[in-house]
What we know:
By secondary structure, this protein is of the alpha+beta class. The chain folds into 2 domains: about 1-55; about 65-195, no CATH class. The protein is about 45% helix and about 15% strand. It has 10 helices and 8 strands. The protein has helices at about 1-10, 20-25, 30-35, 60-65, 75-80, 115-120, 140-145, 155-165, 170-180, 185-195, and strands spanning about 15-20, 40-45, 50, 70, 90-95, 110-115, 120-125, 130-135. It has a 3-stranded antiparallel sheet, with helices on both faces. α5 (about 75-80) runs antiparallel to α7, α7 runs antiparallel to α8 (about 155-165) and α7 runs parallel beside α9. The chain is elongated.
Amino acid sequence: xxxxxxxxxxxxxxxxxxxxxxxxxxxxxxxxxxxxxxxxxxxxxxxxxxxxxxxxxxxxxxxxxxxxxxxxxxxxxxxxxxxxxxxxxxxxxxxxxxxxxxxxxxxxxxxxxxxxxxxxxxxxxxxxxxxxxxxxxxxxxxxxxxxxxxxxxxxxxxxxxxxxxxxxxxxxxxxxxxxxxxxxxxxxxxxxxxxx
Length: 196
């Protein structure tokens, strides 16, 4: 009975399960330890287990481990399918007063922002492993990659602007609002005048 429920959870989550999900389903969390010892599950982080026969989803594991983080800048471009280079280092944005412990063990570049900006434009998209992760929408991301401090490289910016200009679901009004907030309106206008 417990095995059926666990298998259902694993199927629903593309081969991944968390201790929280197990407890919510009314299962004994010791089941995870037993299955890990038997080699049927693999512990990839505190409270996160995968079926070893499936692809491990690093982005989902990081999102689970550091739930206040939002995928940012070039990592967000990748998640939106705007660039196809898999990031070697993931970029995540956190609230200003939040200091995630142990994050230095992972390939993550940490950014911090005041809370009202850190939560602006957050949405969920599917990671390469088909799990939902938090990321900034495309319009917010375009503003983020142009900001002077630590801007993305020129080729990435150009590619992102071209892809955005060709998107059917772009929101130019929202892009303009974000450009005002993040003080990149002139830069955004320069690209959009050429591309649209």
